[in-house]
Predict the structure.
Amino acid sequence: MICEDARLAIGANPQAAGAELEEHLRGCAACSAWREQMRQLDGGIRRALAAPPDYTVPRAARATPRWREYALAASVTLAMAAGLAVWLLRPSDSLAREVVAHVKGEPGSWSSTLHVSAGAIDHALKTSGVGLDLTSDRIVYAQSCWFRGHYVPHLVVQTARGPVTVLILRHEQVRAPDEFREGGMSGVIVPAGDGSIAVLTRGSGRVDEVAGELRQEVHWLPEPAGH
Amino acid sequence: MRNPPTQSPVSSLGERLRAAPSRAAVTAVFESLRPDLLRFAQWLARDRSIAEDIVQEALLRAWRSRDALKDPAAARPWLLTIVRREHARLYERKRLELVCLDDALEVPDPAATAAADPDVLALRHAIMKLPIEYREPLVMQVLGGFSTEEIARELELTATAVLTRLFRARHKLRELCAAGPAAAAAPDAAPQGEPA
C-alpha cells in the first residue's frame, strides 16, 4: 500500500483497520500521524452530530434599521464589482493551480480501474450540461464535482499511456492551449466551444493528443436549471 | 464492516420485538428510535419541521411494510434507510436543500450551544455548510453506522466514489475549522446540494 491509498482509506474512515493498512502504518510515521489527526477530527464529528443542528430565529422576526439595508446593499454591490474584476482579471495559471488542487483532493480517482456504468457517466455529464461522444468503456471514474461555483464533470480516462484526468469546464474560458506543470502533475487546458477542457496526468506524460480528441467530442447541452 | 453507531439501542429493542412481535411492540420500537431518526433527518434536511415531516412519512411507510423487517436487530438501519430515501424523495419534489444558511446559522439556539465546546460548535457549523453530496455519506457513516458498501448501494455510487466523498467531506471540515470558528460559521455561497 502506498501513502496515497492509506490516506484515502483513513480520510474516508479513520476507524478503518486492515492488515495491509496496519502494515503500512507501522513503517510510515507520517501516515500514522495523519490517522491520529483524523481520529481526533472524527471524535469531534461524532460529538458534533450527537445533538440535532442548532435552530434559529427567522431573519424576518428581527427588525433591521433601513440605513443598514442601504449600507448592506451598497457594500454587496461594491464587493460584487470587486469580485467580478478579480474574476475577470485572474491569470489562467490560477485555473491550472485550482484544477490540480481539486484533483489532489480526490486521490482515489487515479486508482480506480472499474469501468463506470453508462448511467453514472451520463449523470456526471448531464448535471453539468455536457455531452461527450466518448466510448464509455475507457472511463474508470465519473463524478460531478463542485468547482469554481459550478458542477463540472470530473472523469478519469484510461489511455495507452495510463490514466488521465479530465475536467470539462463549461464556464472557464482560455484563449489558447495553456500547458502547465504543478504539484507533480502536468497537463493542458484547451479552449473548447465557449468553455475549456483540462486534461492532466501524473508525472510528465503528454496529454495533448487526448485533449485534442476530447475537443472534438465534447458539446454543450442546454444548462440544467439551478446551475 | 459496520461502523459503531453513536447510540445502539437496537439490541434490547430487538429482544423485545423477538419476544413479542405484536403491533404494540413494533410501535414501541419505532417510538424508541424516533429521536435517532429525527436527529438523522435533521442533519440531512437542516430544517426541523421538514425533518419531522420526513420522519413521520418514513414511519408511516415502515409501518405499512413492517412485515419486511425479518430481523428485529436491523430495525435501526432499516428505518434510517427509509428516512434517507424519504429525504431524497422530498428533495426531488421540493428542492429541500434550499435552506438559507444565512438565516440558519446566524442566531444559534442558546440552549443548544451553551454547553458546547468551541471546536465542536465550529464543526457543527461546518457540517451544516457541507454540500449534500458530502454531508449525506458522512452523516450516514458517523450517525447511521453504515458501511462504505451500504452507503454505495444506497446512494447508487461505486465504493471508490463513496470513499472519495467521505475523504473530501473530512478534508473540507478540516479546512473550514482550520480557518477558525468564524469561518466555519460564516454564511457563504456554498452549494446547497443536489438531488441525492
